[in-house]
Known about the structure:
Elements: E1 2-6, E2 20-24, E3 27-28, E4 49-58, E5 61-69, E6 84-88, E7 97-101, E8 112-117, E9 123-128, E10 139-145, E11 151-158, E12 169-177, E13 180-187, E14 194-204, E15 210-212, E16 217-222, E17 230-237, E18 242-249, E19 258-269, E20 275-288, E21 294-300, E22 303-311, E23 317-323
Antiparallel strand pairs: 1-3, 1-7, 2-23, 4-5, 5-6, 6-7, 8-9, 9-10, 10-11, 12-13, 13-14, 14-15, 14-16, 17-18, 18-19, 19-20, 21-22, 22-23
Amino acid sequence: MRRRFMTRRLLPTAAALGVLTLTAAGVDASSGAPPTGRDEIRAPREFSGIAWLVTARNGEEPQEVFLVCHDARDNDAERDLPRLSIVRTPVNTDGIIVQDLDTAFPSVPNDLESIARLPHRNAALLVESNADGDDPDPTIYLATWDKDLNVKIAGSVPWPETPEPLVNVEATAVATVHGRDYFVYAERAQGSDTTNINMTRLTVEESGAIKFGRKWTSVSFTAPAPPDARPASGLDIDRRGNLYISSAYDPGDLGPFDSAVYRAARIRPGGPLGAKLQPVRPPQELARSSGLKVEGVALVAGSFPIFISDDDEDYGGLLRQLRVTWPGMRP
């Protein structure tokens, strides 16, 4: 199903360190409801995880294309909802374009909260969160796509044994260092301002088989703001090894929400795994998104610009671009 969204005004977002947050959000003007004399307007579904796919051309305007996951649960109310969408940035005042996908999964995904793009490949890991332990068999799926952006599930694997109890993960990413892949994740750590960033070796075979290393390395990350936030709600890694994490405050379905995005750590060659994590202390704040709950972070082709996606619960989802204006932060 292809849906076109109109732009709407949102609460202004406070910017930090010279970063300006631009809005690229909208509401769906198409509805199957009985006619009321005007179009019924509803927000797009929540955007729980995001990964950049390609830069397309729509006339003379470049258009960034993303794969987005939705955190629908495996229950009677949400079992049949789409788990994935293609989202395109605006080229005019009509706003973003969202195309729901009917991708077939080997099992019904439960609470997909993050997407980890494999660098330099048309593939990504779609990661179930474990939903506070409510999922008896949390799974990580391998999604691949062709030049026409036809997405299919090429493999799946249970979550590996982790260095700390698997509770609820909303932040995952994949980095490549000297030709080797590394899986990175962080618990959202509800109720604490500190979480661990964990990393292990990753192998994804042509057959779709996914294998994780048994050794892990970890560093801690403390979110300076917002207060009482989940310190890790989204994650991506640039081609120089910088880790960008979103932190989000979520008091309930009607908010008010609050979020921030940080450069939190770096991946460098070395150590027993062939790569090591180095924390950035203190974390460098890229932007503050007051009124929004950021749950996805995605870089374009492993570099800036950087986009965020939001899951604003009853208010729906949106997509925004962060514009970095100081040279020292460009990858």
